[in-house]
Amino acid sequence: MHPQNNSQTVTMSFFRYEGRKNKTWGMSQMHLSRKPMKAMEGLLFFKPLGTGGGTGYSIWPDFGVYGLLAVWENYEQALNWRKSDFYKTFEAKSKENYTIFMSPISSRGSWSGFSNWETSDQKESTPLICVITRATIRKRFMFKFWSMVPGSSAAHDVADGLIFSKGIGEVPLLEQATFTIWENTQSMINFAYKSFHAEAVQITRKRNGFNEEMFTRLKPFLAVGSWNGINPLERYGINSTL
């Protein structure tokens, strides 16, 4: 099910690179992609992102995988970007790429000051739920925060209902985020509010360890490409054809 063309649409893309030359190119896009992205019609907000090792929380970067988050005025403009020559350069350089199209349904906080989410009611379209969590960690709290990461990571690795997960961020150690996809809202809530991860977040908030936070829920409606050789959302009935 596609939303109306006038509905705000969010894309989260991941690119996997192999070989030193392509990995270096992927890293360079953290800076070089900014100008062509800003020229894309309908773009409201975007972030070129590095990623953490493994599937979730990790202090070690993954130099073979990079991400790109974008918020578009509507679905048609998001689609135009995915079909653009600019995107095709990423396809040509990467061994694998995967883009999830989503409709925002709720959000609190901000990312680099952006909080202009136009939420829509997509609750009946699919039980799947995507979540973007983001925080800037105050330098004085950095050591304490990362000392809690192994416990959060362990809870993450055994979380029921987790379909897809990747740690993302702009500045190593200080500006961190995660992108996750869950089978249903309850699975997400159990992890977000009832695991060690929840305790770690509460401790950080209590000690004023975050400078800026954002927690955004979205409904996926289209997933194109592959990750680890498959489209993780195809088995859940999410459309995979542009």
Q: Quick one: CATH class?
A: Alpha Beta
Distance between the termini: 12 Å
Strand content: 35-45%
Indicate the CATH topology: Alpha-Beta Plaits
What overall form do the CA principal axes indicate? globular
Mean pLDDT, all residues: 83
Model regions low in confidence, pLDDT < 50 over at least 5 residues: none
Could you describe the largest sheet, including whether it forms a barrel?
8 strands, antiparallel, barrel
Number of strands: 8
Number of helices: 8
Strand order of the largest sheet: 1-3-2-6-7-5-8-4
Give a quick summary of the entry:
This protein has 242 residues and is an alpha+beta fold.
SSE layout and pairings?
Blueprint lengths: L8 E8 L3 H13 L1 H5 L4 E10 L8 E12 L2 H8 L2 H9 L2 E14 L19 E9 L4 H6 L1 H9 L4 E10 L3 E8 L2 H10 L1 H11 L3 E16 L17
Antiparallel strand pairs: 1-3, 1-4, 2-3, 2-6, 4-8, 5-7, 5-8, 6-7
What would you say this structure looks like, in words?
It is built from eight helices and eight strands. The protein is globular and about 45 Å long. The chain has an eight-stranded antiparallel β-barrel. With 242 residues, the chain is an alpha+beta fold. Strand 6 and strand 7 form a beta hairpin. The chain has a single domain, classed as Alpha-Beta Plaits (2-Layer Sandwich), CATH 3.30.70.
